[in-house]
Amino acid sequence: MAQSGNEAFVTLATNDTYVVGSLVLGESLRRVGTQKKLVVMITKEVSEAFRNNLQNVFDDVHVVDLLSSEDFKNLQLLGRPDLHVTFTKLHCWNLTQYSKCVFLDADTLVLQNVDELFEKEELSAAPDPGWPDCFNSGVFVYTPNVETYKSLMRFASTQGTFDGGDQGLLNLYFNEWPTKDIKKHLPFIYNVVSQAFYSYLPAFRQFKQNVKIVHFIGAIKPWQHPYSSSTRTVTPLPHSGHDAEFLQRWWDIFTSSVQPKFDPSAHLDSMPEGLIGQLASLGFDHDGNRAAMDDFQKLPPLLFLSPILPSNLWPLDFLPDLGFKTLVHFLKY
């Protein structure tokens, strides 16, 4: 793995499900030939099996404590109560073994080499299309510093966040970003959020080939879209706002470089609790309908966005690689 200096791309996985996103992100950075180190912060909720997979992709797997904003009221306004754990991202400022870092959310995908971002200063980020005077915190350049971390934590305890997540907090803390230094405004191509495709389609068509980082924002993530193992294509769920071509690139990396490294023969009880980890490892070598239903009930809530929904939404050829044909058979009776 070729690297330069002590600069790093950093991401975060607070559970096994987001480990899958982190693995695809890491592989995408390797594919575009980054010369920087790759770091993933994880919490104790990440299982040992997935930690081993992360070590094959990232140079540093760093365990951090889970932080929560507990601002459920504002998160409900966003329709994303799951974002309360995103404060854990603030631990990235403690990675002082690196001189400069670029943070990337685990639901981003790097399409072209972006090592030039390390020429930028803290805090450099792209505008959020929903309110362009705020930056989107899914991609940002920063300088690790323990004092900055402590200051952010004090600020969080006294000022809080206007959206319940880290983006509201960071925009309040770095409140001069909109006006002070335009050089810290990254071009949109470094954080193209999915829903923006439909707000200005002519620009998207014109500049799509220039996109360097795509960000799959929203409650539906790339790993939740139906994928056909026979045609090797993904079908975007309605109203997700995700571009089919970018989703296809995510799944191409997942199926070629990430999924093959999961152990499909391991028993469910010994496997991680993450969505794709279980899907890739369901063996269906148990006896009787009850065993299959027991396995099904152990799957996380997100799985209810799954092939058991109407077949016109989830093509049945999505099922073979994920081990669901037998399960669906049992559910019918």
Structure keywords:
single chain, 333 residues, alpha/beta, Spore Coat Polysaccharide Biosynthesis Protein SpsA, Chain A, 2 domains, six-stranded mixed β-sheet, 11 helices, disordered C terminus
Helical amount among residues, as a percent range? 25-40%
- Helix-and-strand structural type: alpha/beta
Order of helices and strands: EHEHEHEEEEHHEHEEEHHHHH
Q: Profile the largest sheet.
A: 6 strands, mixed
Strand content of the residues, in percent?
15-25%
Over the alpha carbons, how many angstroms does the gyration radius reach?
20 Å
Instruction: Return the average pLDDT rounded to an integer.
Output: 78
Could you give the distance between the termini?
51 Å
- The number of helical segments is 11
Question: Would you state the CATH class of the largest domain?
Answer: Alpha Beta
CATH superfamily of the largest domain: Spore Coat Polysaccharide Biosynthesis Protein SpsA, Chain A
Q: Describe the global form.
A: globular
Second CATH tier, the architecture of the largest domain:
Alpha-Beta Complex
Record field, number of beta strands: 11
CATH topology of the largest domain: Spore Coat Polysaccharide Biosynthesis Protein SpsA, Chain A
Catalytic activity: L-tyrosyl-[glycogenin] + UDP-alpha-D-glucose = alpha-D-glucosyl-L-tyrosyl-[glycogenin] + UDP + H(+); [1,4-alpha-D-glucosyl](n)-L-tyrosyl-[glycogenin] + UDP-alpha-D-glucose = [1,4-alpha-D-glucosyl](n+1)-L-tyrosyl-[glycogenin] + UDP + H(+)
Keywords: Cytoplasm, Glycogen biosynthesis, Glycoprotein, Glycosyltransferase, Manganese, Metal-binding, Transferase
Subcellular location: Cytoplasm
Protein name: glycogenin glucosyltransferase
